Amino acid sequence: MTARTYKELMEGSSTVLTLKIDNSQPIRLADFVHAFTSLAEEYRQTVSDSNDFVASEAEIYVKEVRTGSIVADLIPVVASVVPLVAAEVDRVILAVEVVERWRQRLTSLVQGVIPDGASRSDLRRWANAVEAIARDPDASSTLEAATFEDGKREVRASFTFKSSEARQIENVIEGEFQRLDTKKQADHERVLMVFTRSDVGDAPVGKRSGERVLISEVSDKPLAISYGSELAEQRIKHEIRESDDNIFKKGFNVDVKVQLVGGRPAVYSIVNVHDIIDLPE
Question: pTM of this prediction?
Fold first, then answer.
């Protein structure tokens, strides 16, 4: 779509998204920018979730910024699959949907509920949306979808949240980031474990031993192990110390907990040994 076509769309559009920030203190430039970029990202996500529009053509343009508080009229532009340019009614529907999604997302977060399937990028977008007023003790932010007809402005959807709610949202999102960062364990049952390095010495339960094993279902790299139970350690050490068979030609059917570092498996904790088998030559 050409720049001229966008200009024509903006001049002829009667649909706007209005973002109003009532602030009692100066807003940091970065926070100000984030308030608008997060809204643009939410609009593109709304378009992307629809099969009727071209996500790559979804843009929001600033039509006017008025004095008083920070009041910006934004024109949502999108192209439909057929015909090339979305009808005005499509822009109205999308603008209203953006406001309603904004309401649902932020209301859930105020209540301490992380929306299902939320990614880290989603969390950052929502945090960016509220930071401009979260740092202000007495502020609010309002998002409206409105249309103009015969010079009259009609609000189709509106949502407002205040500083106290913004701070609550920040706390909830920060808590979710911490939960994701500190989530260390992932359970795997009855997986095949093969030794790549053995050690006859004992290791305290919960502490790393000098051994390394390969569990192909979890990772393609040999990792260190610890023992999550004395019974599991006793059974494995018996095979290492007393069996006449080569430990590296044995397979262990085990339950393990996986300690993650940076989202990747780092250490296996063996909690149960179900069976020991001879590996094929």
Answer: 0.59
